[in-house]
Write a structure and sequence with these properties.
alpha/beta; Rossmann fold; seven-stranded parallel beta sheet; 8 helices; globular; binds NADPH dihydro-nicotinamide-adenine-dinucleotide phosphate; binds 2-hydroxyethylsulfonic acid
Length: 256
């Protein structure tokens, strides 16, 4: 297996949930971390804590991936400290709202498309040339079961995750001759802040999402990423779809 010791990992959306769990999992393996998200205070705490506990180099950046100029500036500012980005984890993302398309909130649509699709593109556009220059790299996107099967009221969120799925496949082809791996980890239900964000802070609705099920934890998903990232050089994990045992697809969930 490839070692992650001393590798540099850039994680977007590292202030909570899957991104935060990935930061911990990779730090435990001895990887250095570049962490980005909008909530700078949280990120700084996570970054300091992981550096203290695991003795790895960490740096945190307040970044809104929807802002292309900010993405460009952030990437150029961490190049002084980190010469090489070994792994990019495109995790920043969100669902907003849960309504029929004809009742959808346009601002929610814009936010999902701008974050999940355009944000991922902006970050990838900055990082891939660096990986190409360095002669190696690995991009791991966080997709979703929602990028494989649509569900009622999922409309625009599902469309963004279908787009992530298409981009993963397409980017893999584009860098096939560049010694760069491209993977996607596509989870089903994971209990994070995801539902709280989707329902704009409505705790009751967020809790109901996981009623009668034992969802995945962010740590479960992080271990799938570690698996992708620690394969030998000649092995690429193209796609991992990971769900709780009671979930077969977006639309098939067994609730007790
Ligand atoms: P969380 O809400 O816990 O985490 C989302 C992370 O994304 C936060 O760190 C948030 O940070 C960051 N983020 C959101 N918008 C932006 C932005 N514009 N710029 C930078 N960072 C941003 O949810 P999850 O951990 O569950 O979500 C992570 C990824 O996993 C998402 O792409 C989501 O679609 C995907 N996913 C989640 C599933 C689930 O059931 N939970 C299942 C399948 C996929 P901040 O607010 O500080 O900017
Ligand atoms: C998150 C999983 O089912 O809420 O991508 O869309 S779901």
């Amino acid at each position: 297996m490839g070692t992650l010791q001393g590798k540099t990992i850039f994680i977007t959306g590292a202030s909570s949930g899957i991104g935060k769990a990935c930061a911990e999992a990779f730090a435990k393996e001895g990887s250095h971390l570049i962490l980005a998200a909008r909530r700078a205070d949280r990120l700084l705490d996570i970054s300091k804590d992981l550096a203290n506990r695991y003795g790895v180099k960490t740096k945190s950046f307040q970044l809104d991936v929807r802002n292309q100029a900010e993405v460009k500036k952030t990437v150029s500012s961490f190049l002084d400290d980190f010469k090489k980005i070994d792994i990019l984890i495109n995790n920043a993302g969100l669902a907003k709202g849960y309504s029929k398309i004809y009742e959808g909130n346009i601002l929610h649509w814009e936010e999902m498309i701008d974050t999940n699709v355009k944000g991922l593109l902006y970050v990838t556009r900055e990082i891939l040339p660096l990986m190409i220059e360095n002669g190696s790299g690995h991009v791991i996107n966080i997709g979703s079961t929602a990028g494989h099967d649509v569900y009622q009221n999922g409309n625009v969120y599902c469309a963004t995750k279908f787009a992530v799925n298409a981009l993963t496949q397409s980017i893999r082809i584009d860098v096939l001759d560049k010694n760069i791996k491209v993977s996607t980890v596509d989870p089903g239900m994971v209990e994070t802040e995801f539902s709280l964000v989707r329902y704009s802070g409505d705790n009751e609705k967020a809790k109901n999402t996981y009623k009668g099920v034992k969802p995945l934890t962010a740590e479960d998903v992080a271990s799938a990423l570690l698996f992708c990232a620690s394969q030998p050089e000649h092995v690429n994990i193209n796609e991992i779809i990971i769900t709780p045992s009671i979930q077969a697809s977006s639309n098939h969930i067994f609730r007790k």
